[in-house]
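re: that complex we talked abt at group meeting.

here r the seqs, copy pasted straight from the sheet so there may be weird spacing, ignore it
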Amino acid sequence: MLRTERLLLHTWESSDWSALRPIATDVEVMRYITGGIPWTDEQIQNFVNRQVLLYSDRGFCRWKLLEASTGELIGFCGVGIWREALDPEIGWWLARSHWGRGLATEAARAALNDAFERVRLDRIISIAMPANVASLAIMKKLGLKLDAEFESDGVKLLRYAVDRQSRDQRERSKPLFSKVSPRLTSPESHH
Ligand SMILES: CC(C)(COP(=O)(O)OP(=O)(O)OC[C@H]1O[C@@H](n2cnc3c(N)ncnc32)[C@H](O)[C@@H]1OP(=O)(O)O)[C@@H](O)C(=O)NCCC(=O)NCCS
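got the structure back, here u go
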């Protein structure tokens, strides 16, 4: 399990599928996934079961997201397997009532760090429709770079990517002061 300020990123149990149902059947959530077609119960169950297996086989999955203050399941975020893609793919879905508060970015940072530092994945991709500006904004903020434009099932898609080595190098070349917590350098700390 991972913790952030507002979220818990948790492994799944098969029975969690029904808590994911309201999200995976929301037309707005599904707009840039299936073109707005809700997932069937079977698709939702298969998704959750794949995450259970993936975590036990490879030590990563698309974590279920619980709001820390309420324990409510509000979506998922993390690394999974995207269709035929060779590299693991990071993705995120949130319940619509939780959009626009920076929660997906907060979850994605934690999931990406964990996938590189603990799981030691070498390269992580992320795939979205060009119109999915919120999702693309998260990829860019996380340091992923546009890697390819391609088509799958007749749908145009963008692939972003980041690899551990270039990320490590970027971290090392950052000036020291940007690693210091802003709180430590704020005027309050001098009182
Ligand atoms: C994509 C999704 C997870 C974003 O969740 P979120 O918690 O609202 O995202 P954040 O608050 O962390 O915002 C991410 C960035 O996108 C921007 N953004 C969010 N919604 C936006 C919108 N509708 N239009 C333009 N920009 C938007 C935010 O401003 C933020 O960028 P900034 O930090 O530069 O301001 C959420 O919209 C969602 O669940 N969508 C449906 C599922 C989906 O499409 N998943 C991705 C599949 S590739």
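couple things i noticed - Residues 2-123 form a domain with the Aminopeptidase fold (CATH 3.40.630.30). Helices lie at 17-24, 31-34, 41-58, 103-117, 133-141, 164-173, 182-185.
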